[in-house]
Design goal:
homodimer; Alpha/beta knot; six-stranded parallel beta sheet; five-stranded mixed beta sheet; 11 helices; 20% strand
């Protein structure tokens, strides 16, 4: 249905704004994605928002018209509002002209078809939403099936993570589980678990990766716990030519994932 | 000299806090680096802060004692303060226990010894301080000589960029200049300029890189301008297997830089 919100005190605004908080996001089972680019990625991946907020009285891109039409056809709401109300909704002055409220689509390990993709990314206790979103974006690029989040990771459905994913939150499977659950599931089928580590002499380019390959990255500050490393099928290290002994977590994941992809491309 | 600040109204606090703003940072020729880890990297690279602020009355790491001793020996100030004042200085509640005020050490193109390193990173109109800092960190890891910032980039000496660099702001040369200056300088000596582009069919793994290799990455949203691409010696692309057509800028730089390093390692 198409409707309009003109007042700042409309209770729906408060509800939608509350989706910026993890607890309230979880409770509602909804999350926010902002901007036409990401929302178009979502639409192409088969995801439509339940509510689409748009700033009225401005030039409209053809992709936005198509998106709105799909939302209405699917029984969703298109809600017109002013730039001022949108800024309030977004909590920032330079708000996007369109914002969507989507149903949380996290999945379970058992719903994953591990052989549907040659690469899966796995992140442990990832704290930075930018890193997490960037991993999703990288996963999309290397043809990964999804991102498995272990232990206490930052919420993949936060506005910051969704933004950094550039839409990959909709094209990658996202699973959240404990390490023990993951390992138990992993060992019920094929799958090579590869960790990056300072405790190995194996160069990441001399290792042999097999599909499906699960690329495991540890927490930004601590890296992987030793007991997690012990469970890996393969530990590798990237050359470090400088003073530092580690890369940014999203960068390390990408360098590893591209090496795995490159090996698979050659075979 | 060792001294103490006990009052929130001490004018030095305001001065130091002002270094969070680019304009005032430039004017003072100073910048902030927070935390013992980054400050120790700085010390090992030969950089000491002119002023070191520290929270008093807590357990002190041996590296901090060594750092303070070096600062005092070099004629710098060690300023003791309370956790509350440090929080005010940092603008956040969970402030680091040590913060350093360093002299800005940006350099000029002409001071660069291009043959001192096989790889140089070049970023154009980079807007995100996290991306810029991450590029510095990656540069350190691949043994790059430094990061050359073209056109209007975010300030490499901002607190966010320094933090994301994890100390590489002190180990990498940092140059800021215009594109025209860079190209003119580049062509006065050896150097292969490599850009990543959607306009090429050359796979980044089939290209041949030569040292010194200048890896050029464009703005996060727009990528490289066409006229910049036209000046590159080589344009390459990375495989993109998903829906998206680009990687995060810091990720793209890292994937490229590791490929260049890997080729050089084989030869």
């Amino acid at each position: 249905m198409r409707r309009e919100i003109t007042g700042f005190s409309n209770p729906l605004l408060k509800e939608v704004r509350s989706l910026r908080e993890k607890k309230l996001r979880k409770r509602a089972g909804l999350f926010l994605a902002e901007g036409l680019r990401i929302m178009t990625e979502a639409r192409e991946a088969g995801f439509l928002p339940e509510m689409l907020f748009r700033v009225k009285d401005r030039e409209v891109h053809a992709l936005e018209i198509a998106l709105e039409s799909d939302v209405l056809a699917a029984g969703g709401d298109v809600i017109e509002t002013s730039a001022e109300i949108m800024a309030k909704l977004s909590g920032k002055d330079n708000a996007q002209a369109v914002v969507g409220v989507y149903r949380d689509h996290g999945t379970e390990l058992d719903a994953i078809q591990r052989e549907s993709a040659p690469i899966w990314l796995v992140a442990q206790a990832m704290r930075d939403p930018g890193n997490l979103g960037t991993m999703l974006r990288t996963g999309d690029a290397v043809g990964a099936g999804g991102l498995i989040l272990l232990d206490d990771c930052t919420d993949p459905f936060s506005v910051e993570a969704v933004r950094a994913s550039m839409g990959a939150i909709f094209t990658q499977k996202v699973v959240q589980c404990r390490w023990e659950e993951f390992v138990a599931w992993l060992r019920t089928g094929p799958g090579q678990l590869v960790g990056t580590s300072l405790q190995t002499e194996t160069d990441y380019q001399s290792a042999k990766f097999t599909s499906p390959c699960f690329v495991l990255t540890g927490n930004e500050a601590q890296g992987l716990p030793e007991e997690y490393e012990a469970q890996c099928d393969l530990l590798v290290k990237m050359p470090m030519r400088g003073k530092a002994d580690s890369l940014n977590a999203a960068v390390a994941t990408a360098v590893m994932a591209y090496e795995v992809l490159n090996q698979f491309r050659r075979n």
